[in-house]
Amino acid sequence: MSGHSHFKTVAATKNANDAKKGKIFSKMGRVITIAVKEKGPDAASNIQLKAAIEKAKEFNMPKENIERAIKKGTGELAGESLEEVSFEGFGPGGFSIIMEGITDNKNRTLGDVKSILSQHEGKIAGEGAVKWMFDRKGAIMVPENQGAKETLELLAIEAGAEDVRWQENMLAIYTKPEDLEKIKKALEEKQLKIQSASLDWVAKEEIEISGKDKEKAEKLFEALDENDAIQDIYSNLKFSL
């Protein structure tokens, strides 16, 4: 991605301690609950729910936790009154940032985000101040070790991808939002392993910042990622964290 996503962050911490795993499971549970509330508990017809469950299983989230999150979404179990939130802001060096999450208290989460940004030389921005710099796209991440780079790129384009970009050892495949699931299935039918598939905010143009600001940005992302409510973080930074 042009940004930084929570699930991609925790991918590097599969051996995390129990406290970290508990935080990851809590975040994943909220994603599942919201997906069920919005489009029902049938993963066969609810693409968001199917993706959330697949991701939860990748991190060995216990089956009972997944089932509990689904029941909270259907109302079979009492749960928090959750809502999706989206905040926009600027990081150190002036780069743009979109922060999306799920919370039971929007005002508290907004206060937390403002505080985190200010502690790391960033600031909150008004609605629409940043999002115009991004496009909403489907994003499929395919690990490199499945064939020649040119072959993987060709398979993605043949499947209908709008754009492909290499990010270290991953091929990022961008699609129209409505084509995400169709292209994911087409790639899976070609026996390709999919690391992740999601709807992301992709920067129209990326910017460079100084080395010092990059270090500050990394600390900012880590602090946001530690917040219980923040699920996904996107930026227009050129470098990949």
Automatic annotation (TrEMBL):
Residues 82-237 form the TACO1/YebC-like second and third domain. Its main location: cytoplasm. Pfam families: TACO1_YebC_N, Transcrip_reg. It is found in: Cytoplasm. One of its GO terms (cellular component) is cytosol. Coiled coil: none annotated. One of its GO terms (biological process) is regulation of DNA-templated transcription. GO terms for molecular function: DNA binding. The keyword Transcription applies. Residues 5-76 form the TACO1/YebC-like N-terminal domain. The keyword Transcription applies. Keywords: Cytoplasm, DNA-binding, Transcription, Transcription regulation. Belongs to the TACO1 family. This is Probable transcriptional regulatory protein A2730_00390. It comes from Candidatus Staskawiczbacteria bacterium RIFCSPHIGHO2_01_FULL_39_25.
